[in-house]
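ok so for the tutorial part 2 we go from a plain amino acid sequence to predicted structure tokens. step 1 is just haveing the sequence, like this:
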Amino acid sequence: MQGVCIEAAHTASPDLVAEIAPLVQQLSTSTAPLELKELSEILESPTTTLLVARDGTGRVTGILTLVTFRIPTGLRAFIEDVVVDVSARCEGIGEALTREAIAIARAKGARTIDLTSRPSREAANRLYQRLGFERRDTNVYRLPI
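step 2 — the prediction. this is what the tokens look like for a chain of 145 residues:
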């Protein structure tokens, strides 16, 4: 993972949209391409942190979205949309992104961090467990609207 820099994105630009577009497609082929307006909304939200991994040449190699939110039982965090470019996998980028998200959530005072990962993503599941995430005995429900 030598030469990888993890940073929070702060400014939406056409260049950043173009840089993360291939990653979003690798994450979900059914998702429409991200537009500048949507990226601006993400970056302007006080509850959302978009982490970007760049290699030594400045190329974006991974992204992670951290969402923090207050509910009656405390400040919580959720990790979403983690993806590392297929050409850069197994180099520790996913771990670096996740560790940075943990540090940010901890600094904000979050009590917990949740995430979901498909069972077929074996390497990702091993990573999350190695970093201390525990499987929960719960059902996940989704209502498409």
